[in-house]
Amino acid sequence: MKTYNTSAATSGITFICTLIGHQYQTTRKITNHISEYECKCCGKQMTDDSRGRLTLLTPELHEINEKLKMIFHKKRQHLQSA
């Protein structure tokens, strides 16, 4: 799994993340370009936005990722069977 480091600029995170930054690990691969990540230290969840940057994973974005994953999976199955 991939690990990403970012600087911690948000309040309310663990002391370790404040000092060394988040240690993001890929938790789910949605498509070839979109994944969901979680910090190993504090549990903060992030996802890729439309520009490829990490953004906070909200319930709305989680639902969008679920639908996108279903569409991507169906498309991939259809292309493999053709």
Write a structural description.
There is one protein chain. This protein has two helices and five strands. The chain is elongated. The longest helix is centred in the last third of the chain and has 23 residues, at 59-81. It has a five-stranded antiparallel beta sheet with strand order 1-2-3-4-5. β3 (35-39) and β4 form a beta hairpin. The protein has helices at residues 15-20, 59-81; strands at residues 3-6, 22-29, 35-39, 45-48, 54-56. With 82 residues, the protein is α+β, with helices and mostly antiparallel strands.
Number of strands: 5
Helical residue percent? 25-40%
- Uncertain runs are none
Gyration radius over CA:
15 Å
Q: How would you spell out the order of helices and strands? A: EHEEEEH
- Average predicted confidence as pLDDT: 85
Q: State which percent range the strand residues make up.
A: 25-35%
Lateral arrangement of strands in the main beta sheet: 1-2-3-4-5
Structural class: alpha+beta
Total of helices: 2
Query: Largest sheet, if any?
Result: 5 strands, antiparallel
Distance between the termini: 31 Å
Shape: elongated
Task: Draw up the topology in text.
Elements: E1 3-6, H1 15-20, E2 22-29, E3 35-39, E4 45-48, E5 54-56, H2 59-81
Antiparallel strand pairs: 1-2, 2-3, 3-4, 4-5
List its salient traits:
alpha+beta; 2 helices; 5-stranded antiparallel β-sheet; 82 residues
